[in-house]
Amino acid sequence: MDPASILRRNFVNASGRGKTALVMAHGFGCDQKVWRFVAPAFEDDFRVVRFDYVGAGRSETAAYDPGRYASLEGYADDVIEVITAAGLREVVFVGHSVSGIVGVLAAIRRPELFGRLILVGPSPRYLNEAPGYVGGFERPDIEGLLDLMEKNPSGWAGFLAPIVMKNADRPELKAELESSFCAMDPAVARQFARVTFLSDNRDDLAKVTTPALILQCADDSVAPEAVGRFMAARLAGSTYHAMRATGHCPHLSHPEETIAAIRGYLAGAGAMPTEGNA
Amino acid sequence: MSATSPAGTELDAVPCGWLRVADDGRILATNATLRALTGAAAGPTQIETLLTPASRIYYQVSLFPSLRLTGAMDEIYLTLRHADGGEIPVLLNMRRRADEGCSDWAVVRIEQRGRWEAELLHAKRIAEDESRASARKSEELSAAKQELESTLAELKESNWMLRKAAEVLPTCMYCHRVKGDRAQWQSAIEYLKTNAIFLSHGCCPDCTARFFADFGLDPDDKKIPTPPG
């Protein structure tokens, strides 16, 4: 696939100045718009690259191949292809939630593409595993999630978004577009949910050579603190940062603290070349 | 802020549950209907205590991001957790109060409708399975049809060649030219060439004897001279 097709397929958007690229990857359940409160803060010092996984947001859903995306490796393919197509190397990869693990998998396969991994609320395994691993959920909980998704089928609206976009002269349609933000084809969402919440990537953590920052929220019911600690213990050369922010989406609920945490880590990481940065 | 309704009795009497939830998940206030529905105490607590594990994930990964970005979510299906451990299926309308960094939720229990929808969903899944199966069958049929069509084309071609071979060909009894296409007299070789008969070159034993006797060559030897005229 040629670079232009990949950039189109994943609806890749780049902004900002700087020699180093900050590649921001959304988690399950939403799309690249979740970075809107955090991304602008880095545009003076970094090339900020945002994208949608195939099947999410405004990616080309027709490119969704259930075989390729049957495991998180397929999503790691997306990350590697986006970085390569954009002609980037040694990027700072910021991945929220499941994208933390996707970034880990991509960095294991192509370490030369990654300078730093910043993992926001990552979890290598959402299910509890005896003995001693508390992921936070049991299998019926995940089945319950799939059931909830099926009973909230508004995701179909997402397919209308590109059409609605063209109706600039009909502002009343904008509200409809906005409300289809985190829309996804229900079948795609269902498979992505399964892959996300049933994968077990605990054994992959030891294979990572890229330095990583783990941003752990307080009272995160999706990726509890014990899981963040587990990540930090298994990732060699990782930094664990406990946030005051609560919940699972600090980039949405506490953008300032999230920006400061990322900035602080990158400033401390002397090896990061940030041209244009005072 | 107290964790009860700020408007006191009026909001408490509204026939739907109401709660105000901060962006960071703290429940800032509830009304009496919600507390009766969920068995929740009036004290401050996190929204997670009211949600089943599945609903917690759904809220964190999908509802909260959407609400934060769009400011409003309507007709959201969720299961709340009753203080006694039971599950309560509900529909939610949510409005964010951007200035205050929180949102108001209106909660309506849908126990009976939920059962009805579950039955519908079950029927839908069966129908989808059947539709997938019939799509597979239709694909197989179309592949078989294609194969049939290509076999038919081959047969037509063979048939045409057989017809040609079976034609009565008028031949001049003196020069042996034939009356071929468009009633033109032409050499038999020319006729055969233009009528899709594949010809190869060789030399029969009689001609070998006649033309190559002086050279002492084997007729199969590749260096035989070009046949005369």
Layout of secondary structure:
The complex is a heterodimer of chains A (278) and B (229).
Chain A: H1 3-9, E1 13-15, E2 21-25, E3 47-51, H2 72-85, E4 91-96, H3 98-109, E5 114-120, H4 139-151, H5 161-165, H6 172-179, H7 186-198, E6 212-218, H8 225-234, E7 238-246, H9 250-253, H10 255-268
Parallel strand pairs in A: 2-3, 2-4, 4-5, 5-6, 6-7
Antiparallel strand pairs in A: 1-3
Helix pairs in contact in A: 1-2, 2-3, 4-7
Chain B: H1 9-12, E1 17-22, E2 26-30, H2 32-38, E3 45-46, H3 53-70, E4 72-81, E5 87-97, E6 102-109, H4 111-166, E7 178-179, E8 185-186, H5 188-194, H6 205-212
Antiparallel strand pairs in B: 1-2, 1-6, 2-3, 4-5, 5-6, 7-8
Task: Describe what this molecule looks like in 3D.
The complex is a heterodimer of chains A (278) and B (229). With 278 residues, chain A is of the alpha/beta class. Chain A is built from 10 helices and 7 strands. Chain A has a single domain, classed as Rossmann fold (3-Layer(aba) Sandwich). In chain A, helix 4 packs antiparallel against helix 7. The longest helix of chain A is centred in the first third of the chain and has 14 residues. The radius of gyration of chain A is 18 Å and the shape is globular. The termini of chain B are far apart. Chain B has a domain of 104 residues: PAS domain (Beta-Lactamase, 2-Layer Sandwich). In chain B, a hairpin with a 5-residue loop joins strand 7 and strand 8. With 229 residues, chain B is of the alpha+beta class. Chain B is rod-shaped. In chain B, 44% of the residues lie in helices and 20% in strands. The interface between A and B is large, with 40 and 31 residues.
